[in-house]
Amino acid sequence: MDNRISFEEIFEQNKRRIHYQIHKLNIHDPHEEFFQEGLVAMWRAYESYQPDKGPMATYFNYMIRNRMIDAIRKDTRKNEALEKIIHQRKTQLTDGNYHRKSDATNPLVDAQHLPMHDPNLWNNLKSQLTDKQWKWVHYRIILDMPYKEIAEAENVNVEAVKSWGKQVRKKFKDPEFRKAINLDNSL
User: Fold this and answer.
1) Looking at CB atoms within 10 Å, which of 41, 58, 145, 154 has the fewest?
2) How far from the centroid of its chain's Cα atoms is residue 186's Cα?
C-alpha cells in the first residue's frame, strides 16, 4: 500500500508557496499564468521528490522559484524579439523612401539597386526636380543623411526637409515622371 500523501492534499497544504514566490519575484500575474507555472513545478517536484535528499518544502520552493524564473526569461526573450520586429517595421515605414496604400508598404525607389555611378540618371533626375527636391535626393538618398542633419546643413527646420521629400516621393509615384528620367530602365 502507498503511504504517500495525495497531490491534492499536498497542493492544499502548499499552494501559498506559489503565491509567496510570485510575490517575492515581484511578478504581476493577472491571468494566473505564473500560478499555473508554479502548480506544474509543484507537481513535478511531488513526482520526483526523494525523501533522503532533504525536506519536501525546500524542494518545492526551489522547483517553483526556478520554474518561474525560467518563465520570466522566456517572456523576456519573446518580448525582445517582438520589440525588434516592431522597430524594424517602424524603420521601414518611416525611412522616407516608402509610400503606403492601406496597410501595404511599397518602396518608391530601392536605393540599394540604384545605379549610383550613372551620371545620366542623376542628371535626368536633377533636371526634373526643383533645387530643394534635388537637395533632398542628394542628402537623403545619395548620402543617406538623417532629416535632422539635412535640416542643419540647409539651415531649415526638419518639417521643411520632410516636405521636400514628400514632393519627390509624389513625383516618383507618377509613371510619366519615372519614364521622363528613365528610372525604370536604369534599374
Assistant:
1) 58
2) 34
Please, which residues have CB within 8 angstroms of residue 35's CB and are 6 or more apart in sequence?
18, 19, 22, 29
CB 162 within 8 A of CB 169: no
- pLDDT for 119-178, tens place per residue? 677 777 788 888 888 888 888 887 888 888 889 888 999 899 899 889 888 888 888 887
CB contact at 8 A, 165 and 96: yes
What are the boundaries of each domain within the chain?
A: 7-93, 110-186
pTM metric for this prediction = 0.46
The length of the chain is: 187
Burial class (CB in 10 A: 0-12, 13-18, 19+), 180: middle
Domain 7-93 is in which class?
mainly alpha
Cβ contacts of residue 17 below 8 Å, gap of 6+? 38, 42, 57, 60, 61, 64
Q: What is the DSSP string of 143-159?
A: S---HHHHHHHHTS-HH
